[in-house]
Amino acid sequence: MVEKKRRVRFAPSPTGPLHMGGVRTALYNYLYAKQAGGDFIIRIEDTDSQRFVPGAEEYIIEALNWCGIIPDEGVDTNGKVVETPSEKHPHAPYRQSQRKPIYRAYAEKLIENGYAYYAFDSADELDAKRKEAEANKETFIYNYKTRQELKNSLTLPADEVKNLLETTTNWTIRFKNPENEIVKMDDLIRGHIEVNTNTIDDKVLWKRADELPTYHLANIVDDHLMEITEVIRGEEWLPSLPLHYMLYKAFGWSDTQPRFAHLSLLLKPDGKGKLSKRDGDRLGFPVFPLKWVNAEGEVSRGYREDGYYPQAFVNMLALLGWNPGTEQELFTIDELVEIFSLERVIKSGARFNVEKAKWFNQEYLRKQTDSQLAQQFIPILKEKGVDTDKYNVMFVEQLCSLIKERAHFVADFWDICSYFFIAPVSYAENDVKKFCTPETMEIISKVKEFIGNMDIKEFATAGNTPKQECVSDIEVKLTGYIKENEWKMGAVMNTLRLFFVGQAKGLGIADIIYFIGKEEVLRRISAGQNAVK
Ligand code: GLU
Description:
Elements: E1 7-10, H1 20-35, E2 39-42, H2 56-67, E3 73-74, E4 76-77, E5 80-81, H3 100-112, E6 116-119, H4 123-135, H5 158-167, E7 172-175, E8 182-187, E9 191-196, E10 204-207, E11 212-213, H6 215-225, E12 230-234, H7 241-251, E13 259-263, E14 266-267, H8 277-283, E15 292-293, E16 299-300, H9 310-318, H10 333-339, E17 350-351, H11 354-367, H12 370-383, H13 393-403, H14 413-417, H15 429-435, H16 438-453, H17 467-484, H18 489-501, H19 509-532
Parallel strand pairs: 1-2, 2-3, 12-13, 14-17
Antiparallel strand pairs: 4-5, 6-7, 7-10, 8-9, 10-11, 15-16
Helix pairs in contact: 1-10, 9-11, 12-13, 16-18, 16-19, 17-19, 18-19
This protein binds glutamic acid.
Residues 11-13, 45, 215, 219, 231, 233, 237 line the site of glutamic acid.
């Protein structure tokens, strides 16, 4: 038998920015499809007009593009909006609001076959029922018991039903959930599941008021029409699975229904509950791939804007809830395509760890060439007011090479090395007290004179001499002079560092001298001497 082409979809609702858990769902779908040589589709489920948020769809597409999760079919591929069917996009449109005319006939078909009914209860009437149940410490559900006493096509005479359908617009079509049946389901991650239909309510499938389907109907109809073979989605949809099974059966599509895989949640760093936007704000890390500003102007930070490489973000997400079965942690997206498997997706929640996220970024930062890092750092330097034209690009490259081991992000570079570009304007008080004793200041005067006479090669004069050679030469000469005089190495170096950096912390003295040059070194020592006098 020829295997069917695998077709999976990511089906977000544009109700806000895409949470990193959503990106992971999209990623697992993508990896699954690519491994099987199948298709990855993006469908926008926007039938709930009350929860629609402008800009959310664009955000979702941009976020997936940033991650390199590119669909084969969908609302938008490579920046082009796809609205009409074509050979490449046979099921367009992929936005459910544009597919509106499709769904009603399917809902009516269910009524014809006895799997659904018209319901005419107003919101107020249902509210009253809910309150009544609450008063008796019960929960109201619209089901096989209560439907007998409510206003629907199962209880009202046919001519009244006909009349209400023609003259009113606030009716709905509800699924007629069977009484006391066991729905038997299989999940690729969770195994076999059984649920009694008595625990489920008669969900609304279609609403006359806006002539739109609800999520359940649109989702099943579209997965069927789009020939989806596996539904890989978040575990919050697991409670809907029995209804979805019953819908496939009611439509007579059980034979071709997709297989299901429900992914566990991403958990807070302490493992207690779902990772939410508030955790990000509270603990200081992003939960969204890109920055998002809501209608009230409230800003949520994004991985992109925080300086993460998309490759690092994707790598980190892949391992949150899936493992390759080996110790290896670093994977390109193509390597992930090779080895991903749903069998290795864990059933329990995956705990988010921001330190690990930073570690991934650091690993990717180290993989960058010095020239790539310089290109990423130069815009930051400009932003900080550095006239970058004054610096040879090699200067920035060599500096990046020196500091990259100390950073998780290129954005950290400035804090690590700003003093290579601007002289300190003040000196840490504690360090001044500790290191600028009269005795050391006397020594510093001599060291300054020594440096003034030192024959060294610095960045500007190094020519073809490799940097390391220049730096070692400076180091040997300077430390030799201090040792010769039997001065305390630490005290002298810390005072110099204080004058070069503004505090007794920073990179190696010989490195600083090499980069900023003798003239600037002497200027900084003089400035320090004056300041602490
Ligand atoms: N529209 C649903 C969501 O926003 C999709 C659920 C599914 O994949 O079936 O998560």
